Amino acid sequence: MGDSSVSLTRRRFLQAGAALGGAMLMPGLMQAAWAAGSDKPEQTTVRVGFIPLTDCAPLVIAALKGFDKKYGITLVPTKEASWAAVRDKLVSGELDAAHVLYGLLYGLELGIAGKTQSMANLMTLNQNGQGITLSTDLQDKGITEGESLKKMIGQSAPGTYTFAHTFPTGTHAMWLYYWLASAGINPFTDIRTVVVPPPQMVMNMRIGNMVGFCVGEPWNARAINDRIGFTAATSQSVWPDHPEKILGTRRAWVEQNPHTARALVCAVMEAARWIDASDDNRRETARILSRRAWLNTKEQYLTGRMLGEYDNGAGKRWQDAHAIRFFNEGQVSYPWHSDGMWFLTQFRRWGLLKSAPDYAAIASRINRIDIWKDAATAIGGITPPAQTMRTSTLMDGTRWDGTDPERYARHFDIQRTGA
Predict the structure, then answer these.
(1) Fewest CB atoms less than 10 Å from the CB: which of 13, 15, 174, 233?
(2) What pLDDT is recorded for position 38?
(3) Cβ distance 223 to 205 under 8 Å?
């Protein structure tokens, strides 16, 4: 297909989406609209994996509210038991796409999270909304933040205390490591870390398998409700408006199904916009997610933090200015190159990468801004950022803007050397 044919195909896709506007169409009409042109999705059914966490919400809402049908596809969410299961099914093709950890996808591309696989990030599903929980046993000893935790750990043999995250190259590992290191605790020499699937965090802390963990909601709120832990830090206190889960897939799937990929992004982005449109929509989302098919938990564990209403379980309450976000005028979902590059700097910092990677090139080939832009244009009302990089300031005052990533990776006082 020549360049002119590609441009015509893209214009037809965008014109079809724009013509639909915000209206909810009957599936039959939508299928007819797609059949009229060459932009009909190659697949009509798209299997998308998810882990039972609050931030799977855009996928669930896209399927339940009919945003998928609007773009000629049927989204089939499939609940998975662990991030390792998501990885394996995504790589094998059992899943077409997935709600997945940012660092897991990048780890696969680099061969440090499993067998090397060319991957694609279609969009960011959410920013913020994770937490670091410490046990009430520590709280009873006066350990409520990093400084007192460092003092306690320093008085014990290395590896005495165990902390959990959800996947070796995942976001939760990186938030936990960053938070600990900012307090002067080396996560590779001072403590022991283990991998635990999100739904099993609370149970494992209850039986004493670890004194701290980093995970998504509602499991931090659940630990408070069960009186076994308290929130020592939110992930947004580590990095305000950080990227979290993404809509990931294999690069080959995108190449084989470009129209399906765009339709999927359209549906999920519209669902994200619906969630963020009002507090009532967020409350309804919490009610939906609490059901057995999704998170199978109490609505009360979800609603507060969905609305940014925080109680850390240790006497502090606040309205969080950087609570979980799904849309924010489309800015949340944009697959910033600098976001992906940040995870590469942390892989380098912690010895997961033995040599400096080509940061910009890796982010450019994984983060599919082209597909995001096509979908955003089809939906309408979204202004794409003019740049592929953004600037952020993390908890230790470190400024990250994507420039000189190797220097950034190597400037930290605490890092894993010789790995």
Answers:
(1) 15
(2) 73
(3) yes
| pLDDT tens per residue across span 127-145 | 999 999 999 999 999 999 9
The two beta strands, 97-101 and 245-250, are: antiparallel
Average pLDDT over residues 384-395: 97
Nearest to 214 by CA among 262, 160, 176, 252: 176
Average pLDDT over residues 309-334: 97
SS3 390: coil
Rounded mean pLDDT, 291-297:
97
The whole-number average pLDDT for the span 362-369 is 98
Q: How many CB atoms lie within 10 A of CB 268?
A: 29
The residue among 83, 77, 72 whose CA lies nearest residue 61 is 77
Q: How far apart are CA 122 and CA 51, in angstroms?
A: 18
For residue 178, CA distances in Å to 191, 221, 236, 324 come to 14, 21, 12, 19
Q: How far apart are CA 289 and CA 283, in angstroms?
A: 10
CB-based burial, 63-80: b 16+ in 10 Å, e otherwise: bbbbbbbbbbbebebeeb
Taking the C-alpha atoms of residue 348 and residue 412, their distance in angstroms, rounded to an integer, is 11
The model's pTM: 0.91
| Triad 239, 83, 306: Cα angle to 5° | 45
